[in-house]
Amino acid sequence: MSQTIGMVGVGVMGFAMSHNLLKHGFAVAGYDPSSEAMARLQREGGTPCPSPRAVAEAAQIIFLSLPSPAALHAAIDGPDGLAAASGPAILIECSTLPLADKRAAEARLAASGKTLLDCPLSGTGAQAMNRDLVVFASGDEAAYRTALPAMHGMSRAQRYLGAFGNGSIMKYVANLLVTIHNVAAGEAMVLGMKAGLDPALIYDTLADSAGSSRMFQVRGPLMRDNSYDKATATVRTHLKDLAIIGDFAAGLNVSTPVFAAAGQLYHVGAATGRELQDTASVCAVLEQMAGIDRRPKD
Q: How do the domains of the chain map onto residue ranges?
């Protein structure tokens, strides 16, 4: 009988993780407040559960992929929360959230005999579907070793980083680079287009050049095609991450001028109707600033 893995939060990332766990021989029991997400999980072969507590009753290793601190605390507390489930469990928190909220969740779950690992993921929703994720794992090492086979099922690489919280700190550092590299990719595309180069030619030439980056390779095709509505990471979600990283850096008195400058493009995108588009749409913001119009001509 295959091992059952729990999944609390079955949105873009949680569904992709579930897809790969099922593909690699695990059973998946999942919960999401969205009935549409639950129906999609069931079509994929997973088992919908009526509450986070029911997930923890069905599985001893549980991934959490949640959009906000409020969603994390709601999943843990109350009669239908994870903390109310009987018996021990290892819970793997994969979201980008403030450390204070993760540490509060860790203490709450420890009081009910459960172990929380802080394990943010590096990668987009599209990468997640291809199992092209890196786990930044931190927390109890024995629990990490126990959960490692499940992590193998949904990611290509796992990095154990030590004490609880180190995973989130590494994710803040990684997302700082993602923020900058994504805007840099957009700037390069816009400069080339303004000079008369075809966007496909720009992408095909630079993707395998010394000037490339992982963000250019992942987001460049969306910029090339001017196609941002099927988002794998929205501008809205990234603005949440920008606030977390900015507060964290400010708390350490660390100046991040390039990150701060790049962040303004995401705010402009949200203010001009691109909040639910892919973060690659910063390219479209830069195109507008440069006077480029790629809309179909009548």
A: 4-163, 168-290
- Cα 197 from Cα 192, distance rounded (Å): 5
- The CATH fold assigned to 4-163 is Rossmann fold (3.40.50)
Say if CB 267 and CB 281 are below 8 A apart.
no
CATH number of 168-290: 1.10.1040.10
N-terminal to C-terminal alpha carbon distance within the chain? 60
For residue 125, CA distances in Å to 132, 257, 262 come to: 9, 28, 22
Conformational region of residue 164, where left means phi above 0, alpha means psi within -120 to 50, and beta covers everything else:
beta
Residue-wise pLDDT tens digits, 65-122: 999 999 999 999 989 999 999 989 999 999 999 999 999 999 999 999 999 999 999 9
pLDDT per position as a tens digit, 239-277:
999 999 999 999 999 999 999 999 999 999 999 999 999
Q: Which two tokens stand for residue 228?
A: 């941002």
Q: Which of 98, 262, 99, 122 is nearest to 179 (CA)?
A: 262
